[in-house]
Design goal:
Structural class: alpha+beta
Order of helices and strands: HHEEHEEEEEEEEEHEHEHEEH
Largest sheet: 8 strands, mixed
Number of helices: 7
Subunit structure: Homotetramer.
Shape: globular
Number of strands: 15
Family: Belongs to the FBPase class 1 family.
CATH architecture of the largest domain: 2-Layer Sandwich
Strand content: 15-25%
Keywords: Carbohydrate metabolism, Cytoplasm, Hydrolase, Magnesium, Metal-binding
Enzyme class: hydrolase
Number of domains: 2
Bound molecules: 1,6-di-O-phosphono-alpha-D-fructofuranose
GO molecular function, one term: fructose 1,6-bisphosphate 1-phosphatase activity
CATH class of the largest domain: Alpha Beta
Length: about 325
């Protein structure tokens, strides 16, 4: 059977306006361009660190900056997009006057994987813009994840994939290099409710709080422990890749807050990492929590606000949340 293209699939999504559909297509085009940059990077000397840092004091890779430029350039072509927020930018960038949508994005997630040719990704979140406001400010992005109209990610791995929802089902597309089109290879994705896989950076264990430490110990105890099943651990060090695995075959992904002052709110950013991934996982039947409740209820108060995150298979996440929610300070 012929696979649907992204354009054909979007035309059947009744939850999306025409403007939202067009905007998502622009983002899809940006991701194809970024995939090309990543493939060609070794020939162009673009995988090394630049001398500059982003607003969070992290060293930027040349590709982080290039991917950010591509995202902004492609999205600026869409008159529905009123403003943009990016991991790589200190402040909001204006888009089209009269646009009714805001876009938050991480143009290149997991960039420390680049020099070892491992998976990286791009993440995006689309929010409604306030009506009738001439100048969009950062505060206009401070909306809970439940307000998102669409969210998704591109995964640059063995295949280039685009996974997204515009309010209904979560659909996965694979880039067909021959035609240059995104083809629907993973319709109506569902996170299995149970799983025996977990993803956490275990090298930080000594800094974890007691509830989380106990739950991970229970998973490690396997069949002999209270969870009565054996677990396997996977850590790809790129949220896009770890969450993609969870969406396809279940499991739990955890990036916790811990006792170090720098990690008091975890590592991952709410607007363009946690909220869009929580949106996808919940649309696919899974669960996602921040420190004090559902991730999608969290309203960030800065563009680069961080939050601890726990997401994945419904039953496993519920148990992890029960064990660790008392850890929140
Ligand atoms: P980089 O973009 O700096 O590589 O960070 C990736 C990331 O934000 C997220 O994608 C990973 O899940 C997480 O950090 C990995 O963190 P560790 O450095 O603790 O493995």
């Amino acid at each position: 059977m012929r696979m649907k293209t992204l354009t054909e699939w979007l035309s059947g999504q009744e939850t999306a306006s025409d403007r939202l559909r067009r905007g998502v297509e622009r983002i899809g085009a940006a991701c194809i361009e970024i995939a090309g940059l990543i493939e060609r990077a070794p020939f162009e000397g673009q995988t090394g660190a630049l001398d500059s840092s982003n607003v969070q004091g992290e060293v930027q890779k040349a590709l982080d900056v290039l991917a950010n430029d591509v995202f902004l350039a492609r999205c600026a072509e869409e008159p529905a997009f009123a403003a943009f927020a990016s991991e790589e930018l200190d402040d909001v960038v204006a888009g089209a006057a009269g646009g009714d949508l805001l876009v938050a994005f991480d143009p290149l997630d997991g960039s420390s994987n680049l020099d070892v040719s491992m998976c990286v990704g791009s993440i995006f979140s689309i929010l409604p813009a306030p009506a009738g406001k001439a100048v969009i400010e950062a505060v206009d992005f401070f909306q809970p994840g439940r307000a998102q109209l669409a969210a998704g990610y591109a995964l640059y791995g063995p295949q280039t994939m685009l996974v997204l929802s515009v309010g209904g089902e979560v659909a996965g597309f694979t880039l067909d290099r021959a035609s240059g089109a995104w083809l629907l290879t993973h319709p109506a994705m569902q996170v299995p409710p149970d799983s025996g896989e977990y993803a956490i950076n275990a090298s930080n264990e000594r800094h974890w709080r007691p509830g989380l430490k106990g739950f991970v110990a229970d998973m490690k105890a396997g069949k002999d422990g209270p969870l009565q099943r054996d677990f396997n651990m996977r850590w790809l060090a790129a949220m896009v890749a770890d969450v993609h695995r969870v969406l396809v075959r279940g499991g739990i992904f955890i990036y916790p807050a811990d006792a170090r002052p720098k990690l008091a709110d975890g590592k991952l950013r709410v607007l363009y990492e946690c909220a869009p991934m929580a949106y996808l996982v919940e649309k696919a039947g899974g669960l996602a929590y921040a420190a004090k409740g559902p991730m999608l209820d969290l309203r960030p108060d800065t563009l680069h606000k961080r939050a601890p995150i726990l997401l994945g298979s419904r039953n496993l996440v519920a148990k992890a949340w029960e064990a660790s929610s008392g850890d929140a300070g």
